[in-house]
Amino acid sequence: MDERQANKHEVIRQAQERANTTLIWRTQGEPLGSSAGAGDRRFVRRALLWSAAALAALIALGFLAYRNAGAVREAYADLLLSQARFAQAERVIRSMEDESARGRLQQKLYFACAEAYVREGKAADAIPLYRAAGDYPGARDALQRTGYALAQMYEAEGDFAEAGETYAALGDYLDAVEKREACGYAYARERLEYGYYDEAMRLFYALGGYEDAEEYAKQAAAALSESEGAGDLVSLLVGLSDEQLAERARLKAARDALPSGMVATGYKHTVARTEAGTVLAAGSNLSGQCNTKDWTGIVAVAAGAYHTLGLRADGTVAATGMNAYGQCDVGKWTDVAAIYAGAYNTVAVTRDGRILTAGYRSWNTLQWREVSRLSVGDYALCGVMENGQPLCTSGELVTEDYFDLVALDAATANSAGLKADGTVVSNGLDISGLEHILAIACTPNGVYALDDAGRVHARAFPFAHLPDVLDWRDVVAISASATHIVGVTAGGRVLSRGASDMGQCNTQDWALFTPTQDEAPEVTSKP
Amino acid sequence: MRRKVAFLVTLWWVILCGAIGACMLLFAERAPVASEQENRTLAGLPAVTLETLEKGGISEPFESFLTDKFFLRSELVDGANALKHIFSVLTVDELLDVEGEEVFVPALDESEPEEAAASASDEPQAQAQEAAEPQQPDEEPSAALAGDAASVWLEHRDGTRTTLLTCAADELETAAGVFNAYAALLPVGGKAHVLLAPRAQTANKLALHLETESGWSSEAEAVLQSLVFANVVVHSAYDILQAPILSGEYVYFRTDHHWTARGAYLAADAMLKSAGYKTVPLADYAQKTIEGYLGSIYLRGRNAKLKELADSIEVFYPLLPAKSYRVSNAYKKNELPVIAEDQTNYLVFLGGTVGPYRVLESGYHTGRNMLLVCDSFGNSIAPFFLPYYDSVYMVDFRGEYYTRRDAQGGVREYVRRLGIDDIYIVLSETNGIGSQYLNRLMPENIG
To answer: Which residues make Cβ contacts (< 8 Å) with residue A503, sequence separation at least 6?
Structure first.
């Protein structure tokens, strides 16, 4: 009974649904399709046609946008930058795939941001951004201009230390060099006035011959020696005894008598110049660093990790070996007085005192003056001024003990300095007991020092081992890598010791100049 | 009129769906890609072959491809997460204390051709090393311990302290045994340095509450030092990092469980200085900063509250031209990045972990090589060892990165063939004392 009732209800429901559908058809017309009228068919045709056209246009537009997505983003980023919407611009720039366009826009962003800061009077905030803008057109000029203005502002406010540093970062822009010295001088005067004699003395001493800095340095030293006892620098400034002066003169004469640029060591190669101006080489030649047999007229040699340099008598430079970072691109250098090599760098000083660099790194040395000699560390450039003050692109490589220097040699984070009195200073190594030293060679593992008796002393860090070469005699020049050392004897022989896995110690047969006395070749051995 | 509109809507819906589908097939990335946002690999387009069609194995991967690479999917995922956490009741501290997810690194394509065999410079060192005998311990470790032997405490400004973690005596003894086993592999004069670093979840209990916390202390390192050979140096990360943290230095990320590159530098610096090295100051490194980094802790819960604590990543560039290679069977293989410029997360350091071994060729020439046994904390610290070693070899024994089959040799073999002078063991607390990494993975991969 129930089932029949349910069927009856279902039949009624379906009938009502059909009636409703008919009602809808009557009010709205039949559905579009095969049974549609002519007008509807026209509509459908047109709709399909227009839809196809619109789709084709969309696809074309999409394709164009896809092909030019980079350009679209670039234009959008440009627009945002022009409206000073930097945060949004940065997001768009980061999303760009083209690295060169991204880099260029990133530089533009830094530049635009810096300009905005300058307009707001925030010159100090703008400077790092100008620096980050790198070689973006106008960035360098703006950096120098803003830096100079900022330095002037510091100077006007009497903050001479900050002003001096800011001028120092400007290189030789306008009168930045003179201004830096003036600010340094003013700051030193200020320190002296406040009784910071030690600091004032060092600041005045670093200024060398600037105005009456030397006098003030002595004045500060005198005050210091009265109050706190005399240190080395104080003694130097207050006055040396006749004996001390005589000893220094003797050591200077001995140093001047040593041959310079005679031998050099790379990572796994050794080079030496002969009296005749040719260059001998031993060891690894995987990068061509030993291809020196055609060189003539060479007066000094230097060696990087995988490259070799020769200074010709006419002031030009020969180079061979690895040139991955342009360290051998020295063909156009002329009028060169001295050459130095770092692991992947080449540095030269011209006769008029300019510093030339080539290779992996470049350093800001525009403010360096009166440079007497240089040393290229693994990543830092160091030098010694004529007044014995150290120069260094890394603050940690030299300490307060570094003054009155005649040579400075840097390795990685360690360095050693040779003083005019024949003692040695180091920024981390125990170098006690080294006296009457004429030359030093610093390596990442320690220091070698050549004394006035022709003997070579080694001082190693606790983690390292250096070959013991104390048995060598009559040595007049040394050079060392991390794993081997070579020394030239007064007889022109080349001694070597240490790792010789690539033959870098095969120097027994070399004769660099005519022997003054018979000398048996040294037998080399590994440590 | 209404039916015409209905027709047009239907027509354009069909066209839109078709266009999206066609665009996906044409333009969507067909290869599987790593999603930083979801910390997983997004599915690629499956290969359509007769075989897969016959077996019906195409539909599921294809569905995964469609869902993973769907138009605007990233934006939808972000939006959904933001909505989910708008009404979260968890505090920021609770959110920061969750277990972080390791940053996902897609596996390296093994089919890449091998480079030349071992570099020429490795050979002589290996030969020289062969002659060296393993280092014998100078003195025997002290007597056995019992019970809970060492704790790490968080010290409060009110003079009280809370235990952060406790190490059992047997766990310490096991760890010491492992360190001794590694130290015994070294040639004469070689040292093993051990540093077990807290994760950010632990460090930030101090770093983010300097108004109530005064410091932390750990006795685990001292106990360990008493148990190891003379050529093992156990460094306390707690001692090394406490002062910088208290002075507000940015040593740990907030939304990621790793230390920052600055924290890694401090740890490396302390270890190297203890060995007598004169170290390169951080200021001498060229640097860049990546802003808006949301790390592993954020990825775990994706809580909108943590977005406000977004980190910045300081990246310090090597000073000399460094190169990195994958190493297997002690031979160099695929070249890898040292700084992955295309990454904006922790993968910027070395491009993430790659196994079984990896080498960083420093560009320096010191005559020494080292092995760094590490987890992901090693990726940010390794570049700071470069100035002191010719080659920095790295190994991460976690299963995702290391198999004995890939390595084709134990650590003993690698130390001998690669001329390793020193071993540094740098692990996070998760892989430190009592962990499977230290108790099982390290010992079983020695021989």
So the answer is: A282, A283, A284
Q: Closest to A412 (Cβ–Cβ): which among B4, B120, B364?
A: B364
Longest dimension (CA), chain A: 139
The whole-angstrom distance between A417's CA and the closest CA on chain B is 15
Between β-strands A371-376 and A405-410, what pairing exists: parallel, antiparallel or unpaired?
unpaired
pLDDT class for B447, splitting at 50, 70, 90?
confident
Strand partners for A478: A487
Which residues on B lie below 8 Å from A465 (Cβ)?
189
Judge: A378–B364 Cβ closer than 8 Å, yes or no: yes
HSE-up of residue B295 (Cα within 13 Å, Cβ side): 29
For chain B, the C-alpha Rg in angstroms (whole number) is: 25
| Residues A221-226: contacts with CB under 8 Å, at least 24 apart | A221/A197, A223/A197, A224/A197, A224/A198
Amino acid at A469: V
Contact B283 A395 (CB under 8 A): yes
pLDDT value of position A524:
44
Query: Which has the closest alpha carbon to B103: B348, B339, B410?
Result: B348
Residue B12 with chain A: CB contacts under 8 Å: 51
> Is residue A520 scored above 50 in pLDDT?
no
Do the interacting molecules here have an ipTM over 0.90? no
Q: Please, are residues B361 and B332 in contact by the beta-carbon 8 Å criterion?
A: no
* Distance from C-alpha of B192 to C-alpha of B276, rounded to nearest angstrom: 14
Residues of B in Cβ contact (< 8 Å) with A50? none
What pLDDT sits at residue A178? 87
Whether domain A255-498 has CATH 2.130.10.30? yes
H or E segment and range at residue B148? strand B148-156
Query: Residues A514, A492: contact at Cβ < 8 Å?
Result: yes
Domain range list for chain A:
69-137, 195-239, 255-498
Nearest Cα neighbor of B150 from B236, B222, B198 is: B222
Searching chain B, which residue's CA lies closest to the CA of residue A132? Answer: B288
Query: Which residue is listed with tokens 């300097």?
Result: B210
Q: What DSSP character marks residue B349?
A: B
Note the pLDDT tens digit of each residue in B364-406: 999 999 999 999 999 999 999 999 999 999 999 998 889 888 8
Q: Which of B15, B120, B367 lies nearest to residue A55, judging by beta carbons?
A: B15
CB atoms within 10 A of CB A288: 15
- List, as ranges, residues 325-384 from A with C-beta within 8 Å of B: 325, 343-344, 360, 378-380
Alpha-carbon distances, residue A516 vs A274, A380, A511 (angstroms): 15, 39, 11
| DSSP 8-state secondary structure symbol assigned to residue B440 | I
